[in-house]
Design brief:
By secondary structure, the protein is mainly beta. The protein has no helices and 5 strands.
Length: 62
């Protein structure tokens, strides 16, 4: 069984991206790079019962 993915748009270039999601409930935060422009993106995801309840996508602070 594979992990679900979260889909989001890059806050720099708007390109659609996907990142694996840990289905464990709670607040998760990680940084990933855009597949298109390679800039760092901070993701904050609140998961409840294996479903994304809230998604916050931000540019990494310089």
């Amino acid at each position: 069984m594979s992990s679900p993915n979260v889909e989001f748009g890059c806050p720099y270039c708007g390109h659609p991206n996907f990142s694996p999601l840990d289905p464990v409930s709670g607040l998760q935060e990680w940084t990933t790079d855009c597949e298109n422009c390679c800039r760092p993106i901070v993701l904050r995801v609140r998961v409840r019962e294996g479903e994304v309840e809230e998604l916050d996508v931000e540019r990494e602070q310089d």
